[in-house]
Amino acid sequence: xxxxxxxxxxxxxxxxxxxxxxxxxxxxxxxxxxxxxxxxxxxxxxxxxxxxxxxxxxxxxxxxxxxxxxxxxxxxxxxxxxxxxxxxxxxxxxxxxxxxxxxxxxxxxxxxxxxxxxxxxxxxxxxxxxxxxxxxxxxxxxxxxxxxxxxxxxxxxxxxxxxxxxxxxxxxxxxxxxxxxxxxxxxxxxxxxxxxxxxxxxxxxxxxxxxxxx
Length: 214
What we know:
By secondary structure, the protein is an all-alpha fold. The protein contains ten helices and no strands. 27% of the residues are buried.
């Protein structure tokens, strides 16, 4: 008697409501990390997301997993902004401008304390998201540089530092009250990136490797 070959079944896809709950948790966590820092209680995140604590832990077994997902999510959205700028802007420098303003809206400055926290910075998901966004930013900048519109003495690290610093409110000021000035000051920075350069910058262009070097 021949034994039937067992049918290989695919893993079931997550239900739509489960995916929506996960997205709500990540969105709520991102908002609260911006407002209060990465140590905000998980039950507060669950409350803002409109889910129970068990749903949070079912999706993210610990705080590090949630923080990592928020960081990856912001990087993915920043990469998408770079892709959109590349495809929709015929002018190379305008693409860079669009990307910089969109990256600031993602509040990437809030990533700084999270990326320097204790979670695994070499997790495959995090490294893949980082490589993708850095490659796309370099492409946006290379296009503007090739067109003769971007000064030659700047690199990806220069842009990311400026976006992070200019989208972070000064100490002692209300976080969201300062938001109304962010794009004004980013445009001042962008005007300083245009070629021909009107001054000589001290030091060398800053790469992302420079930023990660101890």
